[in-house]
Amino acid sequence: MGSITAEFETCESEGQESRTEPCGKPSVDPNVGYEKLRVIEQQHPLSKQWRERGSKYSEYLEDITTDPRLEQERLLKHILKKNSGTQYLQQFALNGSADVNTFRKLVPVCEYDNIRPLVERIVAGEKSQILTADPVVEFYASSGTTEGVAKLYPVTEEDTSFRAISWRMRGPPLNSRLPGSDQGKFLFMVFVSPGWRTVGGLMQQSAGGSFLQSKYIRKRPFDPSFNLTSPDAVMAAGSYMESVYCHLICGLLQRKEVLRLGSMFSTALVGAFRNLEEWWPEICEDLAAGKLSETRVQTGFVRAAVQPYLRADPELAEFVKEECSKKSWNGIIRRLWPNCRVIDTVCTGSMSAYVPILYHYGDNLPVICSLLYGTSEGFFGVNLNPLSPPEEISYALIPTVAYYEFSPIAGGEEDGADNVVDLTGVKEGEEYEIIVTTVSGLYRCRVGDIVRVVGYYNATPVVQIVRRKNIVLSVDTDKTDETELLHGVTRAAKLLDDQLQLKLGEYTSTVDYSTAPAHYVIYMELLRDDNSDESTVDTIPSDILEQCCVSIEMSFNIIYRRNRAYRRISSLELRIVRNGTFQRFAELAFSRGASPTQYKPPRGLGDKHSAELEILADGLIQSHISQSCPPLPEDYAKAHPSVKHNNQ
């Protein structure tokens, strides 16, 4: 275990000694063209050191993935020896044993709710060794959008250093697959919410936000693959909108140097372009005058940090005005940032719904679906093929940052704790829920992510993120998950785009129990493709909405369709809401403490989402109840002739 940290600290200290500029300050004249910039970056005195550092991490990844069983046993023994005296482990009578089999036999698989009371004691300020021997230094908060309440995860210094190791591993695969990615700028539109103090005095914020404010980023060594267009201060602006405005200003002033454009999550990136559609006249005024709007940006340290980037450029302002005022925004990224080669953002799982709109903005620029598999519980995997299509993105699990176990998923449902396997026991093609044991006090804790094993890197499994564990919709015996919902909504969105040139902005779902029997309700927010200022779309013909309902229901599983035929579920209802409705969702989440960097709209609403349901009701502009029942598969209908196809 010591060699991991030692190797990281060596690279880190080298970077701190050799760093010659404050984080985020432009390293070249913003007027220098892309070709000149490439030469300058290649000749940078720290480039050789950076490449050598990248080689170290590549070699390290090769080494630890060759014998993952050995690495996993070493890590687990390290965790158990260090934390043997904690209150949590002592209740299972391990008696100091660090044996893998003993641990798996005596310590049960748990959910977060099992440890919530212990976490709450730490939050309240209790200093005893409850979950970890090392002191807890802060808490990482989950988004809370799935279950309506955030989960708090204790964090230790060692945990943060492990995340930093994973972070450093993300660079070499991109640089090898996308030569020259280190020779330009990254327009990274990210905002770090400030977090707040718990009762016990420790900070609480999102994992991504905290890490971006940590010493590993603030004191990062020279890294041309993370050469940002904005100063670091913009990440910590006074508000999310203030941050996005500054990112856009800085990114446009360096438009020819931008090679990558992205955000932590695709929700935020799509939101930034919606903001640009609204703000571009004001942005053009600032670009022409070389100033920063006092209305949009009021935080003093942010204005001071952005000031060195500003220059009066009427020609640029006129160009941006010309492009943004065009009727269609198809390809707006290529037009505004002509050297941009990829879009870099998380769009796996339910967020893959944003891929079509990103392709629209980017005119089919490749979309990198995150270089890292990270959660509030830890940074677990690295994307070794970042240019793969979004639907094929996968991650090699890093065996030295968490001890992994896997609960098999059979027929869409968990197969039981008794069948849990370790990292080397998974089978290619099978789906599992990830279970982790970490240095920060999680012991056999379910993460809630369902993954599919798609191959191996050396001897270490490579996984795809399939969905979150939670079932989104259920009325009877049916269980519809995020993946099925996504497939259905995506099919309906394609139909709307093909026939009416309407793009899917956001979506969610719920079960309406006011009918007997209950029925599924799908909410969709749609965007025009004509750069219109209108906040609503025209009334959609009922026949097209009926086609959408059919497309959605045909994507659902046989149990749902059978129950529809048996009339155990009433007809699907599709509800269209006005533009901006889901922005109110986000604002509600932010008011409750969710991080804009981490926010993901909930895909299934229930009893805990009464406020969100009120927002949807207020934004409703059109609804349609399906007039038909989805047909059963032919082979099923033949085998079950008593199940009649009933229109409702």
From TrEMBL:
Domain GH3 C-terminal, residue spans: 484-604
InterPro entries noted in UniProt: GH3, GH3_C, GH3_M
A Pfam family recorded for this sequence: GH3_C
Domain GH3 middle, chain residue ranges per copy: 395-468
Chain intervals for the UniProt region annotation (Disordered): 1-31, 626-648
Family as reported in the entry's similarity comment: Belongs to the IAA-amido conjugating enzyme family.
Protein name: Uncharacterized protein
Organism: Riccia sorocarpa
